[in-house]
Amino acid sequence: MGLEIVNQWRGNKIWGREKRWIDVRDPQDNSLIESVPAASAEEMHQALEEAAAGAGIAANMAVHERMAILHRAADLIQERTETFAVTIAREGSKTIREARKEARRCVDTLRLSAEEARRINGETISFDQSPGSENRMGYYGRFPVGLIGAITPFNDPLNLVAHKAGPAVAAGNAILIKPSSLTPLSALLLAKTLEEAGLPSGVCTVVTGHGSEVGDVLVRDPAVRMISFTGGVEAGEAITRKAGLKKLSMELGSNSPVIVLDDADLEEAVASTVSGAFWAAGQNCLGVQRVYVQSGLFDAFAEAFLRRVRTYRIGDKLSEETDMGPLITEGEALRVERWVDEALHKGARLLAGGKRDGAFYAPTVLMDVPDHCQLAREEIFGPVVSLYRVKDLDEGIREANRSPYGLQAGIFTRDLEKSFRMIREARVGGVMVNDSSDYRIDAMPFGGTKMSGLGREGVRFAIEEMTETKVVCFRLRRH
Ligand SMILES: NC(=O)c1ccc[n+]([C@@H]2O[C@H](COP(=O)([O-])OP(=O)(O)OC[C@H]3O[C@@H](n4cnc5c(N)ncnc54)[C@H](O)[C@@H]3O)[C@@H](O)[C@H]2O)c1
Ligand SMILES: O=C[C@H](O)CS(=O)(=O)O
Question: How much distance in Å is there from the Cα of 111 to the middle of ligand 1?
């Protein structure tokens, strides 16, 4: 896919002046894929004006029209899975196999959005609950908020955009999307496909540009009634401060924990935590970053874990053989290297990896990571996992909760009572029992506590956030 997507695409308003462009480069060799407009603040204002008009169009679309467009777009993406997968893989860090899975999930997300469009209902209300109100009846319903501003991250450049565009369209909203300037092509392709599926111009607009510049305009504009942000905590907090009185959906970071108890299925726990740690080179908000293994199983777990990590093939993202690609930039790989070096300098032990080659960073396993280093406190967002030995579930839960984040957690055990203790006591948005923290389906409620965010995505739950409740009461005339 070349420049043609940028030049030929009119319907969804690709905004940008002739001379300002953002080069989209393949992180594994820094080759130029194509350039997209770097919209100015003024161009974002223009786009917002048109998108505000699109909100009126969207609100008047019948449910069956929204459903048909979403299903048609899902059909088109399904037919073009390889095109979408190659786009995801080339502009981002995913291997082609990981990218195909994301493209297939995007199809599911759009189909779920189509189905949920018919379920945006309310309830009748018995107003005659007090004397004098016998002649009243009514109901409440859910109505579109209007224009939604969406800002999305680099790591799932297609499906996380679909998790905003799909529910927004299903609920009768217009949406203006500012994708990551590192991976904007998948968002452009998605919006183009929605237009090809029949979505009227102005209902889904993509504006490419730098977050701190055009994102600011988007966040502050009073015509935007909701900000749906997915990204890091720092940007999320900045947006929250600037947004003013708007609905906010914040899907932020985490440093997800998994607890493995003595009675766990060892092979299952190892396979799941290795995959959860190194999927997308660890650039996954749900990625397994901390594994707390009960002491009776620790040595066997660590040995099996390292044996599996050593089988990982790092290399060309587009090769079917590759298990893990690069980080999104060499700068990110250098940051990960610095964090690992800090931990080692402060007493951590290196069990595997710890080597960087350009934007590639080997799958890395540490233990004895001290509390007073960034790797222990922050979100690494890279292929680094820390193993910890714990005495029992009490210590595991205590340590898992000792984080400013709370997105999802995992626990491996055969003991139902211990599973329910984890479910009750883990301060997260989701607990995966006998699965790692990174398990997600697109229909489930998704979001975090503490610094991991506000609100929930997952199609039906995003629609709840993207609609307002309106109550109607009829005062019946006496005859
Ligand atoms: N919870 C989730 O669902 C989820 C999913 C994916 C990624 N993430 C998080 O996203 C982060 C990685 O993605 P990233 O590096 O693209 O995040 P990021 O915060 O650097 O950027 C995310 C988006 O925000 C924009 N942006 C940055 N600063 C902004 C500002 N001041 N105002 C407006 N927009 C701004 C960027 O241009 C980009 O489009 C990680 O922290 C990861 O955990 C969370
Ligand atoms: O990076 C965070 C994503 O939301 C996780 S998933 O790809 O949606 O499972």
Answer: 25
